[in-house]
Amino acid sequence: MTVIIHCLFSYLSTVTFGIITNVPRRLLHACGITGTVGWMIFYGVKQADGGEIFANFLGAIGIGLMSILFSRTKKMPLTIFNIPSLVPLVPGGPAYQAVRNIVLGDYVTGIHSMIQVVMTAGAIAAGFMVTGIVERLLKRLLDRSNRKII
To answer: Is the model's pTM score more than 0.90?
Structure first.
């Protein structure tokens, strides 16, 4: 039951943010699927004690790969799928807690939370970089194989 709830709310949060950021209506379902895949990878890795940073990294790779797939099949820019799909992974709660702790004078806890937020954001960025590199490598390999055929 918990998995269904996670799927439902990750889909809804992605689609809702897609509506806010003016994603075309016909692409909202693809955005929702992309966000759900990313969140479920994150959730699965975290449940398997893979660590939150590693889970965010793998979730971002999942989002990146799904975004590439949908951008190719729908013939639309990659960012239309990437941006809304990130919403479930963004560490908004820890960022709020970090600022709150710093404002309340608990600097050690605040700095610890801030470091966690920065590491999470870095893991998400690294996941997107990996998918970008994989996409370029595959494109070069396919271009080379097409030249040999002709």
So the answer is: no
